[in-house]
Amino acid sequence: MDNWQSWGAVESARWIAVPGVASDKYTRGVLGVVTGSDLYPGAAVLGVEAAARTGLGMIRYLGAKGAAAEVLRRRPEAVTAPGRVQAWLVGSGMDASQRPADDAHRLHAALADGVPTVVDAGALDLVGRATGAVVITPHYRELAGVLAGAADDDPDAVTADDIAADPGAWAARASESLGVTVLLKGHTTYVAAPGGARYAVTAGPAWLATAGSGDVLGGVLGALVATHADEIAEAPASTVAALAATAAYLHGRAGELASRGGPIVALDIAEALPDAVRELLTSRTEAEKG
Which of 36, 98, 257, 258 could disulfide-link 268, Cβ–Cβ 3.0 to 4.6 Å? Predict the structure, then answer.
């Protein structure tokens, strides 16, 4: 993989934020979430569950009312009142072609907030509205759609098959043309920042290819971004790229821990995240001891 740095446990370990004795729920990071819909409320549940289990102080869920009820049923500590956040996760479980006016309002408000934003699935068409640092998390078909939209429906626009044939090259090209960090999902995940970082992450079993797995990944990345807002302010592109690669590794490692060689569902991945985080922190402590 020419020009691509392999990213794994050693690189990921330094990007886990650990609370101190003076930490509170606000200093540990607050993630705003606008995900899910009446059609796909489960995406909101999975993203919130994953974010909570990756480690942060608070989650503000500000999506659709029906999805909010499901989120609170699973994670009653989530807050559904607006307020200050350090990062946003938007778009998972939403459909841009069937976007209600109230969802559009929520998405536009989040993207205009000026803080780092993880943009997934049904908000990818709005990436140009974002005013803070952005990382998008498409799969091949979604990236093809984003690039086609950016090219004003060019008849020679890239297809999902084109991207599948050379995903790293297309992740890098999309990052440069869109001006955002791209996390292109696949068996090997490629992370590219504009004019900078190029990371390749191969982690997790093939069982990770299951419904809702991408929603879990979005939650992991949202939590990491919210807990590193200060570092992002100082070096947006390089920091967001490192966090995206770390999210891909954590997601894959949690899948390995959950699977143990057998099939898994998305919620299994989310529930294994604390063990994956603990494993990284243990390895970091041992490395610091020499």
Answer: 258
